[in-house]
# Entry
Amino acid sequence: MLVQKSIIIFFSLVLSISCFKAWAQEDYTLRKVEFRGNDSFSSSRLSDQVSIYGTSRFKQLVFRKKPFLYSREILDSDLKKLARFYQREGFLNTKVTMSALEVDHKNETVKLIINIIEGEPTRVSKVDYKLPTVPEKSYDELSTTIDKAWKSLNLKEGVRFRDEEASSDQGLLIDALINSGYPYAEVHPALEVDTAANEVAINWDIESGPECVFGEVTIKGNGYVAPALVSKQLVFRQGDVYEQRLLNKSQEQVYALGVYQIVTVKSQLSASEEDSVPVSIQLKEAPRYGTRFGIGYGREDKFRVFSEFRYFGFLGGVRRLNLLLKHSGLEPYNIDLKFTQPALFTPRTTLLLNPYVLRQEEPGYTVNRVGGSSAIMHQITRYLGGSAAYSFEQTRLDTNTIASDEGSAIIIPDVYNKSSIILGSSWDNSSPMFSPTRGVFSALVFKWSGLGFNSDFHYTGLMFDGRKYFSFWRTVLALRVKVGGIKSTDDHGIVPVEDRLYSGGSNSVRGWSRSMLGPLDDDDVPLGGKSLLEGSTELRYPIIGLLSGVVFMDFGNVWLDSYSYKIEDLRYAAGLGLRFDTPIGPIRLDAASPVWDEDKKVQLHISVGQAF
# Structure
């Protein structure tokens, strides 16, 4: 009896000591979490799957990183999360354990080591599909549809099985069916797992449902826009074979009319799986009349104010009229009227008429301009667009510094006419709109001026602007290059001062003030040039809340000769900036200084919107 009591006391003591060691470090600061044995996934990837994290003293002091307090309960939950993560990634026999816990009672900190035995991944041994019993014609059509989608499947023979890719393949097969006339289609994977061989056979069980066509289309919510105008934007008609993608495309084209706040185009599937599928279009029109007013300040344009009046449904239909009245230091007055006719000839073609009156006071010139333009714009694909425009303008030149610089005997008239054709194309899949984090933007514009109507100058111009955005670790890398040139076809070689190329400023090379990079006259007034090359690299990173920072480097220059670029003449500037996000884009503050240059003056720029 005494021996039994001694044994019980001994094991009770051992258990008490073990429990004390396991729980004594509760609420200690977790300094470091180390993973071992994770050959297939990085430690940072595993860290994203769990709640616990380590915090060094440096991160606490410098970055104000909140420390994580060790909790065995949370740890046990996270170990299960890691095991489930490995299972989703195809490692069915993975073992995740806490191999060590290093405790510093003096500083009340712990270091955690998690040991992982991954085991062999489960690989796909076979992939097949099973179609329902249907008439031979329908069976052949279904086989053709599935075979086309089959090439795009992620899970193929020999690859590691992953839950995410199985779900992706399921969605891909369903999309193929609903875009081929089978909106009621269901697809389910039947898995045969061989745990001994670490293999899985996938058999896709496909239930197509009936082959369907588009039924009656109902339109609700329209007011000043006639339903017939909405119907013209649809890319399907009643009786056409059902395709989900046609609903999505129709929704885009109706929204592109520019007069709707909300557009939804939905199929009305029935529980009885009818083979004629009605379509409901729900609209919410923008108010027919509207105004906008804005006031602000920029380093270049100083105090600025604008007011815009809009009229939707002008002259009936979806036509729009916009009147912009603007004042700033660069444009003492700007009266701009735009008439827009969407869906001209085709749903993706737009007509724009734009008369204007404005005065420009730039560092190198002051002009009064009266003119107008007419443009046809066509959205070729979702991201690719093209345009063709004609413009006529009468310009009154108040200052004239360019003729004496070129040593020309030509006396430029104070008032002259310009008649031009402008052709353009653009590709834009960057997003989001006001502060892109991914995608590409590129634009190419060709201008041919001097086409009749007593044009005083004849010249051609070409300009390319390209931008690329990369996103990683909550940071955005933005790149830009801009290159252009102008060539006069007159004997005197003069290009109007307001159409010449200038560099420097908040949206250009930020180490120089507006238009001040490039050729200057004896009074340091910018002359502009006929060749331009600019580029920028910008790293954008979050700071706290709506506040973010940037580090950037710009380069560029302007040359007097046409299409003449001298790399050794490029000037460089580097700087720092802050951005504060708002619904209309970030408020921007940049400070930049020339580098590798005698001029070291710091330029400050305040504006709205990213530099590019």
